[in-house]
Amino acid sequence: MDQDLQQFQTPGQYIQFLLEEKGWSQKVLAVVLQVDEAIVNKIISGKKNLDAKMAIALSDTFSIPADAFLTLQKKYELALAQILTKEDPARFRRAQLFASLPIPEMIKRGWLNVSTYKDVEKVEKELLNFFQTDSFSEIQNLPHASKKTDSGKAATPTQIAWIYRVKAIASEMLVGRYSLAAAKASLPKLKELLVSPVATRKVSRILAECGIRFVIVETLKGAKIDGVCLWLDDKSPVIGMSLRFDRIDNFWFVLRHELEHVIQEHGKTNPMLDVNLQIEEHDHEGVINEEESIANAAAAEFCVPQKQLKSFIVRKRPFFYDRDIIGFSKTIDRHPGLIAGQLRFQLKTYNRFNSHLAKIRSIVTRESISDGWGNIVPLN
Fold first, then answer.
1. Domain 3-84 indexed as CATH 1.10.260.40
2. CA 357 from chain center: how many Å?
3. Could you give the CA distance from residue 88 to residue 92 in angstroms, rounded to a whole number?
4. φ, ψ for residue 349 (rounded to 5)?
5. pTM of the model
6. Tens digit of each residue's pLDDT (9 = 90 or more) over 154-174
7. How far apart are CA 365 and CA 49, in angstroms?
């Protein structure tokens, strides 16, 4: 604001100052402006707001830019509003919650028992229930309590909301008693399923028998989640998967990756959230920590024995024909899609071998606890 205007609190004070400089009365100004004298009086006394049309008329009259009058008017209105408006800390809190959490999507998915996000009071109550807390400050601090294991970054509120949904569903599941021996014993049983997409329907039962809760929850928009390993308590591991890529290779890699976290007892303090596993974007996210390296190695070896894969690559490079992939898959008792997936990752050619990448989502979700794609898991 121009220095000369700083001394004025309202446009009326400024207009009165200009009138005194010219030696005019309010009546004279009314004549010049061709308006009723009462209008001039109300503007000067602050009983009537000065609009853009009047600002232009005053600009012509006093040879002063119109925005000078409008700036004073806005300054006065804001100062008056600050005096009359009570401070509302809840407004800032609501702004933070709506900015960070995908509340409309959570309502649509049935995670919040609210008919519309416009019912703010009900939304806030449901959020406290969803995150199992009685404090909004705890919700706001959630990103600091969970780590993305692939890069060590704090998880986003959206990613944390997904984790809480996995946890809530898992908490109501009944499975066998968990033991490390049982988890390791499940590996040969799971390996037998690698030959066929249809066989993936047995995964949930095998994991339940060894005490591992297996939950599938469709990811939230922009979350880029593949899976999570978390523990309800020291004897209750949970594997959550999003199946955001409907491919046999991605399914088995992520599942075995999370299962290794369970076997290694990773994630007992904070959930082990895995984002962008074995896809192109992951190559640019920085150094992978030790826990992730262990899980990645176990998953890769499970999908395709790495020594044999490397030998296959050396023998067939640069041409990898479908007949060779199929022949290799029969040799190692794997579906060709698993070999295709490993080749894509090893060769950094993510647009090749698509014909082998069988879809499995509809098969897996048919006999597993799944939330998403139009299905909502009812919770008590």
1. yes
2. 27
3. 8
4. -120, 85
5. 0.80
6. 788 899 999 999 999 999 999
7. 63
